[in-house]
Design a protein that fits this description.
Elements (H helix, E strand, L loop, with lengths): L4 E6 L8 H8 L16 E5 L9 H6 L4 E5 L2 H7 L6 E4 L5 H4 L11 E5 L6 H7 L4 E6 L19 H4 L10 H9 L5 E2 L5 H11 L4 E5 L20 H7 L19 E5 L2 E5 L1 H16 L3 E4 L3 H6 L3 H10 L2 E2 L4 E7 L11
Helix pairs in contact: 8-10
Length: 342
């Protein structure tokens, strides 16, 4: 993949100043949590909402599974197209999950898997429609409240204490998870719902995990990206297809930050969070042979790189810098010094 000018993109989580309040408010619903190995020996399909999902209807129908999870807007999409689905899953903290017709404004007779950080209006909304909600934790990495100190009597779980960086787990976020919820899992791979759903499925010990719609990018081979200062940029952005239902990245605004890359002659366009997630999904596939990706997606394109170039390619991928930023994200811009933080 070739990338244009390198810059640092600062990521911001939805409602990031209120996420501790989200966790606390949702605790009252945390009686039904995901348990370790509860799906041992079963098969699960996880559907992201990427554009490739629209081309895999028949494959999805023919793939056998005990459960079919739909991430975020993939849920209404599957229902609309009369495709099988048993669960909705989200780690999204935004209020759009409640209010947006493309997300979970309308509810369906499935089990909803929600992380403890979702917007506090979401679970009451689902409960008001008599939907079953099961909970788990999704790592947020937010700073401790000013002045908070972990109690001396509090120790992380044994499996954490066996690690090297114990202090990383002595956070207020982890303290809340352990003290106001029943025991469950905290997932943390990737920045979007699909890679975290894969982690949840691994913890539940599904023997086979088949992933559809994990594009982590727009539909490939679109027109080349204009510079960010080009007056045609908003129209180009609108022309891209980021979701199976046809929506474009323009939903994030007419100047949404995108990057263009080329893998084996094919052009891909993606966002910073999705590019990080693509790399994490590929890493999960390398680590766990029971994960299979379906479709014309960016992670699958990464997996087909020749042996001689794969290692160098992954070393050059943008990475999180530990403070909410993505280092080395390529931008197609006229004045790189003006895009050091976006």
């Amino acid at each position: 993949m070739t990338l244009p000018v390198s810059a640092t993109i600062q990521l911001e989580m939805p409602n990031q100043n209120f996420l501790f309040e989200h966790i606390k408010a949702n605790a009252k619903y945390g009686t039904d949590v995901i348990r370790l190995a509860e799906a041992k020996g079963k098969r699960v399909i996880i559907c992201g909402s990427g554009p490739s999902l629209a081309h895999e209807h028949e494959t999805l129908k023919q793939t056998l599974a005990h459960q079919i999870w739909a991430a975020n807007s993939a849920l209404p999409y599957l229902v609309k197209h009369k495709l099988p689905v048993t669960h909705g899953i989200t780690v999204d903290m935004s209020v759009e999950m409640v209010d947006d017709p493309a997300e979970w404004l309308e509810t369906f007779p499935v089990t909803y898997l929600c992380s403890s950080g979702v917007h506090p209006r979401l679970i009451p909304h689902l409960k008001a429609h008599n939907r079953r909600v099961r909970m788990f934790h999704s790592y947020l990495g937010i700073k401790n409240p000013e002045g908070w100190v972990a109690p001396d009597t509090w120790k992380p779980p044994q499996e954490v204490r066996a690690g090297v960086q114990v202090d990383l787990f002595r956070t207020y976020e982890m303290y809340l998870y352990q003290h106001i919820y029943p025991g469950t899992v905290q997932v943390g791979y990737g920045l979007n719902t699909v890679p975290r759903a894969i982690c949840l499925a691994l913890w539940m010990e599904f023997k086979e995990i088949v992933v559809f719609g994990a594009d982590c990018a727009c539909a490939p081979d679109a027109e080349l990206m204009p510079t960010a200062n080009d007056p045609n940029y908003p129209a180009w952005l609108e022309s891209l297809k980021l979701y199976a239902d046809g929506r474009s990245p323009a939903k994030y605004g007419p100047n949404a930050v995108m990057s263009q890359g080329i893998i084996e002659g094919r052009v891909w366009h993606t966002r910073p969070d999705m590019l990080i997630s693509a790399g994490h999904i590929v890493d999960l596939v390398h680590r766990y042979p029971n994960i299979r990706l379906v479709g014309d997606t960016l992670p699958n394109a990464m997996l087909t790189l020749p042996d001689g170039t794969r290692e160098d390619f992954f070393q050059k991928l943008p990475k999180l810098n530990g403070s909410g930023g993505v280092e080395g994200f390529g931008l197609n811009i006229d004045k790189p010094q003006e895009a050091a933080s976006c």
